[in-house]
Amino acid sequence: MDLYASPMACSLAAHITALEAGIPVTMRYLDLVSKRTDDGGDYRAISPNGYVPALRLPDGTLLDEAPAVLQWLADQNPASGLAPPWSSMDRYRLISALNFLSTEVHKKVFAPLVGAHATDESRAATRGLVEPTLDRISARLGERDTLVGETFTVADAYLVTVLHWAVHARAQLANWPNLAAYLARHLQRPAVAQAIAEEKAEYRRRNVPAAQPA
Description:
Layout: E1 2-5, H1 11-21, E2 26-31, E3 36-37, E4 54-56, E5 62-64, H2 66-75, H3 89-114, H4 120-126, H5 130-141, H6 154-168, H7 177-186, H8 190-206
Parallel strand pairs: 1-2
Antiparallel strand pairs: 1-4, 2-3, 4-5
Helix pairs in contact: 1-2, 1-6, 1-8, 3-4, 3-6, 6-7
């Protein structure tokens, strides 16, 4: 399977998930500005939306949108606990968390702030949303170790990615002790550490902006 990604974009969550689930994927990095893949191809010919992640399944089907990609990967290895069982209340809590992160946090706040197409105007207009957004995330997490249920799920893979952007945007996570502790704890997970190390190495190799939401 090919996982289309950009270094430290929201596709990092899918990279973490694949490692956590033990699912082999070929990382296909692209430039979100030029929309060119690692072999020089036009990414829009692969995924018309032009953003990441996108997953090319073994039968050739292309799956896109982070919540769908994350849940599909998790469901390939139910024993990993990366997604609660379908029909359980925690599964619907997971969907709620993924939708919140993808819309209210990722697209609304961090894409215009530190995204590949961020401008001075979008940064100025959005910076004031960071603290209220982190307040909402902090309240949602509370003092728990994980965002949904009792084990690390794809919602945590996404939240780790989001909080990494917040640090890149110079948010003082110390003002939200539960978020600072949460991020520090999960950065020690082997899959998280491996995915971040690989993507930072790719960033250095390509010299493209890191921490860029799609």
